[in-house]
Amino acid sequence: MLKKNPAFLPAKEVKIMSKPLTKAQIQNKKYRRLKDKSLEQHLLYRFLNNYGYDKGEITAKAIIKDILNVVEQFFLVANNNNDISHTQYGELVWMAVPVDEFPQRGKSIAKTRLMPIVLSFITDDDISHIAHGFDSTSLRKKRLRRFVDQAFDQGALLTQLDLAALLGVCDAVISKYVNEIQQSGTLLPTRGNIHDLSGAITHKREIITLYLQGYLTPDIALKTNHSKEAVDRYIKDYHKVETLWLHGITDLDEISQLTRLSKRVAQQYVDLLPTKLKNSMSKNSEKEDELTTQPLFP
């Protein structure tokens, strides 16, 4: 007996011959229809139909997944327990430079890796401060210290420009606040201090002074809010300048060239050399000048 070709069967017979969908299959079909309305699917459609993208669906999906992950990380941040959580009331998300993202010559912020951090923009302590007599300067200083400490605890650094934007003042005012706080003996872990972007040498002076007093790297790092790697880097650079100075190389241009440090940074390390060392080299230089000016034959 010849089998009937389904292509030539009436619609009613074809419907009778096809297996009915199970409840699970129907639910799955509904799920796919809803899932296809997702942002991921919408972006995939635009990649393949609107952007002139021609690398295929698999690569497009991988790119979209990465984009969505970046967007998610921008609005969702990791708390101290490494659990992803939304920001709470009174908090805000800010993009900051990670501690291990060191600056390089010609490296703009657009080419610098950033990470989202959570800052407590207003706290019960702030509200109490306002309630018991509003003093805007002391309130800003209190918040400034909190912001830089919270950023550092999350593995990131804020610049003075960040702080100016967060506190609604110009960066000159922030610079004044930072100097006043640090003069009281508190070293702030700003990006300028940790990554050596500012002209101040407070952090270098403190680190090298502790080192010359015999403190070890872990203790110095703990006392100065610096990583062990940063402390070792400062000590290594100091030794480069010290070694050159001991060998009679005291010209700043030459020191800068040999150590591969900027002239400004090289001068900072020269300023940190013990006075006894600089004086002894100065006396040796004077003796050499006397010898060169004496006539060869009396």
Descriptive overview:
There is one protein chain. The protein is mainly alpha-helical and 298 residues long. It has two domains: 73-196, no CATH class; 201-292, no CATH class. Helices cover 59% and strands 7% of the residues. It is built from 15 helices and five strands. It has helices at 11-17, 23-35, 39-49, 57-75, 124-131, 136-153, 160-167, 171-183, 191-194, 202-212, 217-224, 228-246, 252-259, 263-272, 275-293; strands at residues 77-78, 84-85, 91-98, 115-120, 156-157. The strands form two sheets. It has a three-stranded antiparallel β-sheet, sandwiched between helices. Strand 1 (77-78) and strand 2 form a beta hairpin. Helix 3 packs across helix 4, helix 10 crosses helix 12 and helix 13 crosses helix 14 (263-272). The chain is elongated. The mean pLDDT is 79.
Strand content: 5-15%
Number of spatially distinct domains: 2
Strand order of the largest sheet: 4-3-5
Low-confidence stretches: none
Helix segment count? Answer: 15
User: Strand pairing plus helix content: what structural class?
Assistant: mainly alpha
> How many E strands?
5
What is Rg?
Answer: 32 Å
Q: What percent of the residues sit in helical stretches (DSSP H or I)?
A: 55-70%
The secondary-structure element order is HHHHEEEEHHEHHHHHHHHH
Largest sheet: 3 strands, antiparallel
Mean pLDDT: 79
Taken from the alpha-carbon principal axes, the silhouette is: elongated
Distance between the termini: 136 Å
